[in-house]
Every structure is written in structure tokens, then in C-alpha cells.
Amino acid sequence: MSSYYTQLTIKTKPQFVELLGDFVVSITDEAIEYTQDSIIIRTENDTQNIKEAIESIVDSSIPIEFVEEQKENQDWIAKYKESINPIDAGEFYIHPQWYPPKDGKINIVINPALAFGSGHHATTYSCLGAVSRYVKDGISMLDVGCGSGILALAGAKKGAEVDMCDTDPLAIDSAKENFELNNQKYNQAWIGSVNSTDKEYDIVVANIIADVLKAISKSLKDRLKDDGVLILSGILDKKESIVTDSFRDLKLVDRISKDEWITLVYKKDSNGTTTG
Description:
Number of domains: 2
Helix content: 25-40%
Structural class: alpha/beta
CATH class of the largest domain: Alpha Beta
Strand content: 25-35%
Radius of gyration: 19 Å
Distance between the termini: 62 Å
CATH topology of the largest domain: Rossmann fold
Number of strands: 14
């Protein structure tokens, strides 16, 4: 081990810290620390790819600033582990491997430093609540943009037959590892998006961002069975209309708001759509 490492600090507004952090851990297996207005990555490797990847997914509404420093090594992984707390979301208890399970809850083990999505971000938290409410034993479910696979895992733990997809190969690898870690099975997992399958599902979940939800809206609706439920998240409140305009032919049955982020739940009626 080198006696020095690089500390890359990504400064942003507080409301974007966990969202950007979730993306960062989907592209690197380095440990990450959150502060109120920044994400700190400590690594002995080059950080250029990380910075380029972040720049490629943000727009002018998400301000970022990179600060890179050389630091003397210390036991920052142990420090990071101490900073992570489990969470309760609906029926689920999301906890790192170094915490014990919780009685009376559906336990999901996610090691946050190793995968996208640990349940702490408002969008993932709200989606877990929706999965808790709408997913039933024996149904089929697709998780689009699965990241760590946390939502697919939640569906599987409730007895659903789950498929999952993500355009990032590292996310698919992480999701598969998390299924193994939780002793759960998935049906199919592929690199790509919802348009790579022609199967129809009882539940489709997409926790992405508003602009992408709009772009793939037809494919999401096409993959939904009649009377199926569509759970959409990753929606900043100021961009909610982009999504509601794109899905106005479905019936809105639930709206969950948390920390400037919106989760919308739609239902497709037995005729394929509804204008109600």
C-alpha cells in the first residue's frame, strides 16, 4: 500500500450530494464519504475517469466543483464504515454487511461503498416504500436502471419474479453480486434498457431521471401488462411536469414527495391505457 493517496472532493449543493454519490459508487469501488455539500473519494488510482463520467451526466442545474489533494494514508475505510447507518423503508431494513439484521423486517444487505443505491437517497427510499406497497408474491417485475439492484432485491424478497437491466455493465455486476450476497435469485439481467425485451410485467420500476423517463416513456408503457403498475422516480419536483405530460394516458394512483424528489405511481387499465 502506498503511503499517500488522492482525495477527490466533489462539491455541489446539499440536495444533490446523495444523488451524485449514488452515481459515483456505480462507476468505482472506492470508498466514499458524504458531507453536507460534498462527496469525498479516497483512492490510490487515477481519478480522471471518475471526473469525466460525472461531467458527462450532469447539466447546468447540478453545480459541481472538483478539488483534488494528495493525503497521507490512514484507516479511512474503517472511518467510512462508522459513518454508514442502516435505514427503514416500508417493510424493508437496508443495512451494510457489518450491521446485524432487524427482527420483524425484510432485511436487505447492501454495502454502500460497492454499489449504486443503498436506500439513503430520497428517490430510492420512496421507491422502496412503493415496492413495499404494490409488489405481491408471484407477480413479475422489471427494474429499469437497476444500479445496485436494491429495488429488484426488494421485489424478490417479496416473492416477485424479477428481471433487471442497466446501461452500465458495472451496475449489472454489482446487482448480481448483491443478489448473491442476499441469497436471492433473479430471472434475467441484461446490459441495456427496457427496449431490449418484449416481455410484459405486472410491475415496472424506473428510478432514473425525468428526462430519461420521458425519452423511454413509450417503451416503459409497452412493457406493462393491463392493470399493471408503473413506479417512476428520480424526478426533481421542478421537472415533474416533464414526466406527468409523458404518462398522462395512464392513471396516477400515488404521488410520494421527499426532499425535493418525486415518485409517481401509475396504473394501466385493462384496455391498455386510461385517461382518468
